[in-house]
Amino acid sequence: MEYDIVVVGGGPTGLATAWHTAARGRRTLVLDRHGFFNERAGSGGAERHWRLQYTQEDLFRLTLETLPLWRRLEELAERTLVHSTGSLWFGDIEVETNEGQIAATARTMDRLDVPYEWLGARDIEKRFGFARLPAHYEGFLQPDGGTIDVRGTLAALYRLAQENGAILSGGERALEVLPDADGVTVRTDRGTHRAAKAVLANGPGINDLLAPLGARLGIRLYEMALVTLRRRAPDHLPFWFVFQQPAEQDTNLFYGFGHNPWSPGDLVRLGPDFEVDPLPDADAATGRADPRHVRRLCSWVERHLPVLDPHPVRTGSCLAVLPADPARQFHLGRADGLVPHGEHLVLHSSGWGFKLVPLLGRICADLAIDGRTASDIARLAPTAPQEAQP
């Protein structure tokens, strides 16, 4: 079959790309080897953190650019997808983490005129139910942050892609992607497809398709624990992330969601943000939380967050696909200079990117159709020599 665009990967970015390309009248095929709405990588779980703030100004500007696209997606979906419950960052304001740095992020918010409320340790305890925080802990509450409804978002993107004419093929695995002077051939376990352009948005599987072309992206895989706890009483917790000096055994970073506005009951999800013990490949993920990491989180909650019962209701894990260079945040761009005829390939992989999904889809569509995008993604381009390994 011949298409204008074949999208490999039917997760959030792939579906968002198909929405935009199909809406622009391009014949679009989306392939997903595991089937749509699976719980792997970027589409697992019920919620993701929505935030405006980044330490890096170029990424911060991307979230500001994304917000109107979320509102448009909500309008088309006829449901709220981003719930502004607040985003609370607190702890050691000078510590450098994979999430950023509090003090530097506050300066970026000042430059971009984004509102926030600065809070000391006692303020955080009084307002949100934390306890026994070190006296030097400080931070900010950014009121526009909050929680994204993952399943609602995926359902909306799937429907919009389909309604605009995209062909969505679940359970079909791309085995080979071969760009040439005239376009791209995509060979799957069901047949062969021909397209003018291909968008690779298949998370940890992207290197399986790039390696035969002589390239690899710098990616690391981690299996991170997810812990569900029960609230002792109604509360008004925002999303929170605590920045702390690293411990000997891990990064000593923890986060948690408040109660999901769309969910009944008293359960909330938390996790340790430990980038330790990288996996050799996605198939090595067990689906089980490391009990050591669960104990570390629950011990912190027992001491510092008494509004929650520290005994897990359930545990699980998520597969985090992250750039090998933490300063990069994402791989995003065309494959020019990375592989022969790379101008026919658009790549997106790795990073905590769900908050940017509507924009990522538009960017990938722009690159595939127009060969360029108005968004500033120069630093994220997957063509840096250190990222391409023959």
TrEMBL record:
Its cofactor is FAD. InterPro entries: FAD-dep_OxRdtase (IPR006076), FAD/NAD-bd_sf (IPR036188), MTOX (IPR045170). Keywords: FAD, Flavoprotein, Oxidoreductase. It comes from Streptomyces caatingaensis. Residues 4-367 form the FAD dependent oxidoreductase domain. GO terms for molecular function: flavin adenine dinucleotide binding; sarcosine oxidase activity. This is FAD-dependent oxidoreductase.
